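Q: For a teaching handout, I want to show students what a protein-ligand complex looks like in token form. Below are the inputs, and the small molecule is iron/sulfur cluster. Please produce the holo structure.
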Amino acid sequence: MILNHSVQPLPPLPDCKDKTASLYVHIPFCRTKCGYCSFVSFPAIDFNLTNYMEGLLKQAETMSCHPWIRKRRFKSLFVGGGTPTIYDEKSLARLIKNCLRLFKFESEPEITVETNPNTVTLDKLITLAAAGVNRLSIGIQSFSDRLLKLLGRSHSAADGLNSVKSARTAGFTNINLDLMYGLPYQTIADWEETLGTAVTLSPEHLSIYELTVEEGTRFAERADKGELVLPHEDTVIEMEAVTRNITQKAGYQRYEISNFAKSDRKCAHNINYWENRNYVGLGAAAFSCFSGVRVQNITDPAEFARLTQKEMPPFLKAESLSNEARFRETVIMGLRMLSGVSITMAKQRFNLTPQTYYGETLQKLIENDLIQISGDHMRLTEKGLPLANQVMAQLV
Ligand code: SF4
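A: Here is the structure, written as tokens, with iron/sulfur cluster included.
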């Protein structure tokens, strides 16, 4: 079933054995739009933020009454964007408290708020911690002012350092820093300096992504005109080696292709996605997955707020995935994690195993040392990790 009308009601939702889910809330506003950004985010100045917040709260209220949701315990809450901390502390605390009140959470859920360095103050962070936020994710991207400017970021390297310092002062003991490499005109020394600075701050978690120039961004336009010079492929490979060395020496465990954590600080919210489990998304452009029915909210924040406040459904499309499609997705997403996919879990959830489903294709990947099966887990090998996209393309 694929429905794709302008707006539609929520389709009937099947139940499943898994009685857990995670909750995502999307704040699609930023101070300015970064040159490389392909996320659903808009300059805050163009929208009525109060109105959007009311719409969000209304959707939280409506969705929390749905029978499928009433049956679920939520493991995590992630307020992402965009830049959630574009809002003042009172609004954010109200949003978080309402989510915690309306949805049934497990004890001690992971509660993350994404921030950008020049949108946080010590007072704001103290208020967030008091509202229950126990994990902060800071979009640092680089500690080079030259590269931050080139990326179109609205903060400086000093803002980045100060935001981490303020987060510690506010009492946060679980901090993630987002960093990027493979940037135009970035040298290996630049990357060593940024990553080196990051690890000296001892964040509990690092998300490290290579820049990809996505269609429709200002970077794509500039790249087409030959105005952007990206590092050579060999330089990027060397940057990856730098990443492995510095993170390993600093005591981080790589547990997903782009994510590194100290001991027990893996991101529970993202693991829920990589395990392809249930999630509920509130806000413009947010996705939900209800026992294999994937639903997307409309992307226009003003229209989203208008509809939800009138108690009208804000859903853009709904797609019911077949058992096989969900199995394939679960395998592919699971391979992103270094622990891989549990074969018993796949069998229990989908009544399928990778060996029987993929047959010869999987056998060849094993023979070529790209995938290994050891014990109950199927995972990418050392050789397969850098070729993850090519391997996954064979399993789609
Ligand atoms: S801060 Fe993040 S979401 Fe906002 S414009 Fe920049 S990259 Fe996009």
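A: Two things your students might notice: The CA atoms of residues 189 and 363 lie 41 Å apart. Confidence is low (pLDDT under 50) at residues 1-5.
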